[in-house]
Amino acid sequence: MLKYFLFICFFYLSTQCAAQFCSGNYCYEEIDTKQGLSNNIVLSLLQDSEGYLWIGTYNGLCMYNGTKFTKMQNVLGESDQNVVNAIETIFEDKRKNIWIGTRYGLVSRYTKKEKRFYIYPNTINAAITGFFQDKKGTIWVTNDKGMIGSITGDKINFYPITVDENILSVAEKTDDMLIIVCAVKSYVFSKLNRTAAIIRYNGEKAYNYNSAIATRDADVFTVNQKGCNLINIKENTIKTIIPTPSFFRSPSHQKIALGNNTIYYTDGVIMGEYTLQGKHISTFSINELGHKNNTEINTMISDKSGIIWLGTNSGLLKIDKYKYQFDKYMSNGISKYITHDYVRSIYTDKQGNLWIGMRNGAVNKLCYNRSNNQYDFSGSYRLHYCNKNLSEYTVNCFLQLRNGKLLVGGQQGVSCLKHNSNIFTKYLPDSINTRIVEVWSLYEDAYGNIWIGCNNLGLFIYNPRLKRVYHYMNNPSDKNTIAGNSVWNIYESKNGHIWLGTSNGLCFPQQFCGVQNLNFKQCLLNDTKPIQVWSISEDRDSNLWIGTTGNGLYSVSLRTNKINHFNNLVNNVVASVFFDKKETIWVSTVNGLYHYDKKINLLNSFGEQDGLQSSDFNFKAYSVAANNKVFLGTKSGIVSFSPDSIKTRNYNHIPVYITSLKISGVDSSCAISRHSIINLSYKQNFINIGFAIVDFTKPETHTYRYKLEGFQKKWTYTTADQPYANYTNIPPGKYKFLLEGSVNGNDWNSQSQFLFIDIHPALWQRPIFWLVLCITIVTAVSLFVYKRIKHIIKKEREKNKIQLEIVTLELNALQAQMNPHFIFNTLNAIQHYIINHDDIAANNYLSRFAKLMRLFLESSKNKYTNLQAEIELNELYISLERLRFEDKFDYSVTIDHKINVNGIRIPSMLIQPFIENAIKHGLIYKQTKGILKLSFFISDDQEYILCEIDDNGIGREKSKQLHNKNEKYNAHASRGMQLIRERVDAYNFIEKRKIGIEVIDKHYPEEGTLIKLKIPVS
Questions:
Q1: How many whole angstroms separate alpha carbon 542 and alpha carbon 49?
Q2: N or C, which end of the chain is more exposed by having fewer CB within 10 Å?
Q3: C-alpha span between 239 and 984 (Å, rounded)
Q4: Residue 1003, CB half-sphere, CA atoms under 13 Å: how many?
Q5: Are 979 and 913 in contact (CB under 8 A)?
Q6: What does pTM read for this prediction?
Q7: Which helix (H) or strand (E) holds 799?
Q8: What are the C-alpha distances in Å from 51 to residues 88, 471, 670, 695, 755?
Q9: CB 189 within 8 A of CB 174
Q10: Residue 820: which pLDDT band, with cuts at 50, 70 and 90?
């Protein structure tokens, strides 16, 4: 029981000491075999020149890039199978080789270029304690038996320095002399004589060092019972620069590590940060949340980014100072404690106390402690109507009146803290109190009136002196009412306007001189949809900064009334907006905290990866405390920080590396080189490329983009979960693989990594092969085609000759058939006149007939005739037919003036049969006098004559009916149209140019038929 009590007392004192010296709530991330370590006992650590973390454990060696552990194989060759692989020390030489020393005296060297280990035989069974490389490049090895060895070729030659004394560190005094710091004494070692002599600093005889570490300037920092000491090699002096803190454990627990111009000094419970001259910077507890206080630290380093790594017997501990710039107040906190985690509102009263309103939790009070510049929990307060039912405790806002009274607004209305009590009693009279619920904002104006903003109930203004309430609601038809019925925020600007942040934008009362009959001027941020305004803040330039839910951040100039919308936030649901001393803007959202410098347009974001216990901030839950720290409420407690002291990392300098290469499933990582070309065969076109950003701050946010130039044009993006690129079926060619990385997904490193890949084609994939093959094929095909075409042409000529003779004979036969047909019809007309004893008409007709016969015989001798002769022939024929049928119809011939009738040739006797049909089958059966129109046009391209034969006869349908009716009485069968169609088909076949024939039947009220001929011109 006594031991338990003593343990509790020690733990309490240690946490109080931590709180006294702490600058923040520091905790750490613990990494063990579950994350990939080969063993939980971590004995040695090294960060190499490329940023990789090498971890030596009791059973193996690991390499860590921030997201993945690689367990190194064959570190000790065949010895891996026979001894415990305890890695006591790790070292990187100037050639970037990694040296490994084990507990049982074995030494191994890893070359990154070849990715393999070389084993150095050693017969001395002693733990290797360290490596050192002098200016000449010689590698020196030390052990815990007081011996130092030099590596020459593949051998290690050891020289005794002292007897069974652990060598802690080595430094170079001159080109020929080394300083060797052991656990008890220091020695000077001659490289030439291989002898050592004791060095005494300031007359001291024994030092009893626990640990020692050399700097680049050849100074050595040591730790003993006095504290942290500096051995000045050049001056041969020793000085205690950091006395051991009184609350530190024994020197056996103490370790030091060198950072960037800093020293980290710890006993495993408390850690201090100092300058190289011993000036205190900060002190913090690494066991703030009650982790076991007997942490045994085997090794400790500080990496390039300032992260501190502790190798312990229970795993690897990671401490990131940047990650813990934010204080955390939680229900399970020790020095920073609140009773409930869902923080709904925060308020700083005139006495500097912080009041915390909860959802389903009692009101908390935090008092400012000037001795440690912190806020400590002072007590909890309940509401009068809640009794012990915490589910009814919901406080959305606070207000301290000028008379000192403290009001709270919540679900049940407005309450007031009773004097010298921990109870908030009702503030409004009963008749008023029942009407005012779901209060979200409180404000006291210059006249002592209390403005109360409610959800869906609008604005209430309470006059305490008259005990009267004035109520204002939104009226959509009246622009002089408040903008929305949910009033989330009430804020007074420097010009005296009282602004209401509502569910539909901003508004303020016009000509405010009393609370009766107020008219409001609305300031809608967006005309298209309602915008919820939760947060209002004003900068030095009289600009209001408006935080909205879903629309991001707005600024409203009170001088020019200009509204600007800032939409570059990652999350547009703004919880609060406030300014620091430099007038830079801080914006809390439901998904992170943002710092925006409007002068340089720089935006930094903070999330849970940066140390926030929650990035989901509650609306309006913020306050600037008496110590200038900002307190923000979340659903997981309170986040507190000093805006002026927040530091951000520069991620642009962090490189990205190509870490692995697999070609067709075979590991080919040894081929990775920045300046060489990877030559592959056509079969090796399946490639997997692995990569990593060597940064340990926020490895889960790493983002990559890559492309294979020559194979793809656009970047491909991937995250830390899949840090590799896969390519399949890459065609032969020369390619350049480009890779870029981003630590936070926003800032891309300008230094790209690349690989040159040359996939050689197979013989049949080479251009020369295809050129020769194509020439051969083309030649063979050309010969074959030439002979084949020659044969086909010969046969076609013979065939066409025969067909042409046949068609010509057929065409002559058709024309021979047409001639008697025309003559027969004409003689019938002459016979008609003779029978009727009309000698004059018969003589006139016979004269015209003789002329027509002459034209016809001349035309029928040739396949082509000029257009003038064809027109004259057809006009003469029409006139004869008109005489024959006793002026039964009139006719007209129209010729386009563009036509050169003497210079154009068309097929002979092509038009007459259509004219004959129009007369014999259409016009002669018409009861009234008919009209026949013959028109000639020429196409725009001068290639065709367009001929139209238009009659207004009875039409083809009636003519057919009459023909069928009189068929048995008519011994002559007309073959004019049939002959002309056969003749047109023959012409089209011979000339390869088509004559177009279109027959159009006219319909009521018109009668007759329209024939359109499209005749090629020759």
A1: 51
A2: N
A3: 124
A4: 0
A5: yes
A6: 0.67
A7: helix 767-835
A8: 20, 65, 19, 7, 20
A9: no
A10: low
